[in-house]
Amino acid sequence: MMRWRVVKCVSLLLLLGLTVPAVAGECPDFLDHEQRKLHSRDSVNLCEVAAGKPMLVVNTASRCGYTGQFEGLEALHQQYKDRGLAVVGFASDDFRQEADTEEEAAKVCFVNFGVTFTMIAPTPVTGEQANPVFREINRQAEQPRWNFTKYVLDRNGKVVERFPSQVRPDDPGLIEAIEAVL
């Protein structure tokens, strides 16, 4: 449905003689799905958030020893959002460390760590039950072995680098990978 709307808009612009940005209809299929936002009835289609943009995708859990990384992820979001980086967190209980309720998970993210980047409601990120985004990420790279695995994707949705949980958001290698896709 989303692609049809984009095609109709592009067609209308062309009929009017207006130019269309090169990325207007370019969004990988795996991003073109409605994902419910954390502790919200609202959903987001990642094509609307990240089409044509590099991304940092992270599987998260609010009761993990790495939960403090939310602070660094938010810092990356603030530092690079104006240069086009889309940071997206996927809450998940695949490793049995997500809060019992979304309300609690949201408090950890939004209140305790001031997260403003897109956070998706708890969803599987491993195995056959993985959400469409992580199914594709897992096809391209090794699936998460633990919470806070970080994936840097280029503007076309290709995974260019995978960083394990213990790699902090301020790690020079992660910063270098982000800079390379901007």
Describe what this molecule looks like in 3D.
Residues 2-24 have low confidence and may be disordered. Strands 5-4-3-6-7 form a five-stranded mixed sheet, with helices on one face. Strands 1-2 form a two-stranded antiparallel ribbon. The chain has six helices and seven strands. Helix content is 34%, strand content 16%. 34% of the residues are buried. The chain is of the alpha/beta class. The longest helix has 14 residues, at 2-15. The chain has helices at 2-15, 46-50, 69-80, 102-112, 132-140, 172-181, and strands at 34-36, 43-45, 55-60, 86-91, 118-120, 150-153, 159-163. The radius of gyration is 16 Å and the shape is globular. The protein has a single domain, classed as Glutaredoxin (3-Layer(aba) Sandwich).
CATH superfamily: Glutaredoxin
**pLDDT below 50 for ≥5 consecutive residues: which ranges?**
2-24
Distance between the termini: 29 Å
Assign a percent range to the helix content.
25-40%
Percent strand equals: 15-25%
CATH C-level category: Alpha Beta
Shape from CA axes? globular
Query: What Rg is obtained from the alpha carbons, in whole angstroms?
Result: 16 Å
Order of helices and strands: HEEHEHEHEHEEH
Structural class: alpha/beta
**Largest sheet descriptor:** 5 strands, mixed
Arithmetic mean of pLDDT: 90
